[in-house]
Write a sequence for this structure.
């Protein structure tokens, strides 16, 4: 809920820690090899980031107008890569935490 509100309001101060935390949870829950986990997390975070971009783009289009929405698209692609990277790092941390807990 906090993540959805942050995306809709444009406040990114909570998104980065949330993505890292979700990535750590993904790494802790998924019991596969490291390569499979990284592929799974990359796919999940790319899809999630694209959905978040579409939701925020629709919100900006109806509140600010079409020209501002075009400007938002230009920097949204950077955020997709950034959120995917943060989530994948979180998944790797979660994988190593799970390995330490099990051993």
């Amino acid at each position: 809920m906090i993540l959805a509100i942050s995306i809709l309001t444009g406040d990114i101060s909570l998104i980065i820690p949330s993505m890292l935390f979700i990535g750590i949870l993904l790494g802790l829950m998924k019991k596969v090899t490291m390569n499979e986990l990284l592929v799974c997390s990359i796919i999940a975070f790319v899809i999630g980031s694209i959905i978040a971009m579409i939701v925020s783009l629709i919100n900006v289009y109806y509140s600010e107008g079409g020209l501002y929405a075009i400007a938002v698209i230009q920097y949204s692609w950077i955020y997709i890569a950034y959120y995917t990277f943060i989530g994948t790092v979180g998944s790797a941390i979660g994988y190593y935490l799970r390995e330490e807990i099990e051993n």
Remarks:
- The chain has a mean pLDDT of 83.
- Residues 4 and 52 are 8 Å apart (CA to CA).
